[in-house]
Amino acid sequence: MSLDDAQIERYSRQLLLKEWGGAGQEQLLNSRVFLLGVGGLGAPAALYLAAAGVGTLIIADSDRVERSNLQRQILYGTPDIGQPKGETAARVLRRLNPDVEVQVIGTRVTDAILDDLLPRCDLALDASDNFDTRYALNAACLRHGKRLVTGAVLGFEGQVAVFHHGIDANASCYRCLYPAPSQRCQATCATAGVLGGVAGMIGTLQAVEAIKELLGIGTTLAGQVLLINTLDTVFHRVRVPRNPSCPTCRRS
Ligand SMILES: [Zn+2]
């Protein structure tokens, strides 16, 4: 596959990057990303992944757009209230970049769905909002040898992490970081509030980390978590050690 004239023009600003080039773009166009959730994190992540030319985006979301989503879920507009997020997001993403094949899972994601989808993807991006789903995707990445980019946001704070437990037996996983759902993290945007721009920052960082992983460029957050406090403008990067008794990645 080589880039046509329209693609060379569309991607020109990233083709200029020395880490990228035509080979990187072709690699990205051949990549498949599973994006779980197109809400506050998934919306900006999906927009940047699609704009950059990730060839296939499989997006899963069973919710419908609510008015209270619009403050941060920038894929949607006021006329979309009441519409299913997955199909609405797919329409916007296809309009943004017809190079991207967008597939939609509009039901709640189960282990069976993950076991069907993940083998076909290069990488999974967790933009969900609850521990059950996060744990399920984290475990599925281990089963199917996939890399995982996670993100979470609450109030003025957020975090991003990358896990290689699917491809590296010595790597930590999401559950090494959170062996059990933490009380504080069980609070949701609905109960604790969130600043829209913070969700935008975290979702955007997830997209950037995913693209770097797909192209094998730079240094990603693999095995680390980046903690962001925007109220005081403080960023911390912390290593996530493997937990030998982790319920998910423990090797007997
Ligand atoms: Zn683990």
How would you describe the overall organization of this protein?
With 252 residues, this protein is of the alpha/beta class. The protein has a single domain, classed as 3-Layer(aba) Sandwich (Rossmann fold). The protein contains eleven helices and eight strands. It has an eight-stranded mixed sheet, with helices on both faces. Helix 7 (131-144) links the parallel strand 4 and strand 5 (147-154). Helix 4 (42-52) runs parallel beside helix 5 and helix 4 packs across helix 11. The longest helix has 20 residues, at 196-215. The protein binds zinc ion (ZN). The site of zinc ion (ZN) has 8 residues, from helix 8.
Write the layout of secondary structure elements.
Elements: H1 5-10, H2 12-15, H3 21-29, E1 32-36, H4 42-52, E2 56-60, H5 85-96, E3 101-105, H6 111-117, E4 123-126, H7 131-144, E5 147-154, E6 157-163, H8 174-177, H9 183-186, H10 189-192, H11 196-215, E7 224-229, E8 234-239
Parallel strand pairs: 1-2, 1-4, 2-3, 4-5
Antiparallel strand pairs: 5-6, 6-7, 7-8
Helix pairs in contact: 4-5, 4-11
The site of zinc ion has 8 residues, from helix 8.
Q: Quick one: overall form?
A: globular
> What is the mean pLDDT?
95
Please give the CATH class. Alpha Beta
Number of helices: 11
Q: Report the β-strand fraction as a percent range.
A: 15-25%
| Rg of Cα set | 17 Å
Low-confidence stretches: none
Q: Which percent bin holds the helix content?
A: 25-40%
Number of strands: 8
How can the largest sheet be summarized? Answer: 8 strands, mixed
Q: In terms of quaternary structure, what is this?
A: single chain
